[in-house]
Write a structure and sequence with these properties.
Length: about 220
C-alpha cells in the first residue's frame, strides 16, 4: 500500500513567512494540520476575505470536501495501456459560505502528479502559460468559485507559490498506477499568491472519491 506521511512542514516560499509583531494568527501561513480529514483556507482573493474551515464529520468520507485524481492513459493498438498511466492533476472541491452565500469552491493542481512525489517534496507554483508546460517540480494552480447550482462565478490562476506534499495514500489497481476511486487521500499545504494583495494559505487532508481518466 502506498503511504507517505510527514508530521510538520516548513513555511512556504512566497515571502508569507515574514511575520511582524502585529500579525494575527490568521495572517500567518498555515502549517499542516495533520492526517485527520480537514480543509482550511485563509486569505484574500478577488476582493473577498476567505476563511474556510471544514473539519470533523464534514470532512469525513467526502461529505463536504473531496479530492479527484486525473490520469492520462495512452492507447496502444487501440487499447488503454494502464501500465503507462500518469497522474497529471489533483483537484479539491467542497462547499463554503462567503458573506452569507453558499458556494462551491475548487482548486486544481495542474500539470503535476503529486502521486509521483514523496512526503516533504516542494512543488513551485508558476504562472499558467498553456504553451509552456511546467517542469517536473512545478505546477499551475487554479482557484474557482461556482454557485450552489454550479454556475461559474470566478476562476483565476495563481502567479507564484509553493505546495508541500505531506501525505498521499492508496493502493494502485490493475497496471500498478491508477488508484481506484474511493480509495486513498491527499494531504498538503499550499501558499499561493495571485497579486500583492491576493493570497491564500491552505492545509488539507482530503479523501479521494473519484478519478478522471483520459485516454489518448
Amino acid at each position: 500500500m502506498r503511504w507517505i506521511l510527514r508530521a510538520v512542514l516548513g513555511i512556504g516560499a512566497l515571502g508569507l513567512g515574514a511575520c511582524e509583531s502585529t500579525e494575527t494568527a490568521k495572517d500567518k501561513p498555515l502549517s499542516w494540520q495533520g492526517a485527520e480529514p480537514h480543509f482550511i483556507a485563509r486569505g484574500h482573493l478577488n476582493g473577498e476575505q476567505i476563511d474556510i474551515r471544514i473539519v470533523g464529520d464534514d470532512a469525513e468520507e467526502g461529505a463536504s470536501v473531496w479530492c479527484e485524481r486525473e490520469y492520462e492513459v495512452p492507447l496502444v493498438d487501440g487499447v488503454a495501456d494502464l501500465t503507462q498511466a500518469r497522474q497529471i492533476e489533483t483537484s479539491i472541491t467542497g462547499y463554503a459560505t462567503v458573506d452569507g452565500e453558499e458556494r462551491i469552491f475548487q482548486f486544481e493542481i495542474k500539470q503535476h502528479g503529486l502521486q509521483d512525489d514523496r512526503s516533504g517534496d516542494s512543488v513551485t507554483i508558476i504562472p499558467r502559460v498553456d504553451e509552456v508546460p511546467p517542469d517536473a517540480d512545478e505546477a499551475w494552480l487554479d482557484w474557482e468559485w461556482q454557485t450552489i447550482d454550479e454556475e461559474d462565478l470566478f476562476e483565476s490562476s495563481a502567479q507564484e507559490g509553493e505546495i508541500v506534499l505531506e501525505a498521499f495514500t492508496g493502493e494502485p489497481g490493475e497496471g500498478g498506477v491508477i488508484i481506484p476511486e474511493g480509495e486513498g487521500m491527499v494531504g498538503a499545504t499550499v501558499q499561493a499568491r495571485w497579486s500583492v494583495n491576493e493570497s491564500l494559505s491552505m492545509s488539507f487532508s482530503v479523501p479521494c472519491t473519484a478519478n478522471d481518466v483520459e485516454e489518448y
